[in-house]
Amino acid sequence: MKKAKLPQGPVGEPVAAASSAGVDWRAVFAFPNPVNEYAARITAGLVVVVAVGTLLTGFGWGLVALAVGFWLRVLFGPRISPIALLSVKVLAPRIGHAKLVPGPPKRFAQGIGAALTSAAVVLFFVGLEPGAWVLLALLIVAASLEAFVGFCLGCAIFGLLQRCGLIPAEICEACNNISLRRL
After folding, report:
1. What angle do CA 183, 86, 61 make, to 5 degrees?
2. Would you say the pTM of this structure is higher than 0.85?
3. What are the beta bridge partners of residue 82?
4. How confident is the prediction along the chain (183 residues), in pLDDT tens digits per residue?
């Protein structure tokens, strides 16, 4: 008797198909792999705009909006975040062709953004506004590098951690194996 092959997840492990009675949690929390580099850069540019506006106005709820946006992108990919939806569905398609890059480093970078903005929110609302603005300035630098130069600082950190063995190679085969990369 032939065994049915299960669908493969983002790192090649079998994924159980969603049953009619249950929720496929892998699908709920899926992050695209690969991702469109241009959409990622546009998203970073929009983050820069919101972050600079927040920094210039001193509006603490802007920090909350940024943190929520990062958490939505980390947890659900671009499916729920308004900034990501605008980037992926409206702006990036206007560029034309997509430049595909591995998804796991981009998700890791979004996670760093979520951590920075969450810490900034806490600092702001406990009365340590200068610390919140310093973290926001760091975020602006990192997002600007992604948006305007095409250098993803979070992706570089991901690569370093992978080379050190702290992130397993199977998390991102294309990151680990140069022959799998498209130039």
Report:
1. 120
2. no
3. none
4. 444 444 444 444 444 444 456 887 777 787 778 889 999 999 999 999 999 999 999 999 999 999 999 999 999 888 889 999 999 999 999 988 888 888 899 999 999 999 999 999 999 999 999 999 999 999 999 999 999 999 999 999 998 898 888 988 888 877 765 444 444
DSSP for 133-179? HHHHHHHHHHHHIIIII---HHHHHHHHHHHTTSS-GGG-HHHH-GG
Strand partners, 14: 8
Residue 8 has phi, psi (to 5 degrees) of: -95, 140
- Separation between Cα atoms, residue 102 and residue 39, nearest integer Å: 13
